[in-house]
Predict the structure of TetR/AcrR family transcriptional regulator.
Amino acid sequence: MGNKRDEKRAELRKRLIEAAEDQISQQGIDGLKARAVTAQAGCALGALYNAFEDLDMLIMHVNSRTLARLGAALRSALPEQETSPEEVMQALATRYVDFACENHKLWIALFEHRPPEGHEIPEWHRQDHAVLIEVIVAPLKQLRPDLDDQALVLRSRTTFAAVHGVVLLALQGRFVGVPMQDLRQEVSALVSAMTRGAHLAV
């Protein structure tokens, strides 16, 4: 009996996550409504709160799925043959731009969602974000062999933030953002400048 109950709960959670993911991909995180999610998942409103602590926890599970897909996309961009760290960084940046453009609303949800004040982000969800940084560490280590592990992670975060900021402002249509037709070119130029600067800093 316990196994069947667990299986039903797991199936319900899966349906709710998929429904919420679909809702976010169409309407964005601000348009996500619990009733719409449960209606699409084919369950009662109360079932959502039996499967998840609250709507914020459901969003975190959707975001974790997006992070897993993004991680797979970034890893698939890594060249199969040995190449320069500059080329690796360019390949990662290009794939990041492509993923953000192709999954605009789900990608935005990764960075717009904040749990209510007083609610901690679960450690498992924090760990899921590691993929955004870990793929940068290896090529950056080749560029900056002088950095210790702690400094390398910090510099990887800075590198990610620089590229991410350009992409975010462009996709948000901000006045200071890069025009969409120039986004890939400008991100490539930014990565070139950062990798050249890394060489000079050694």
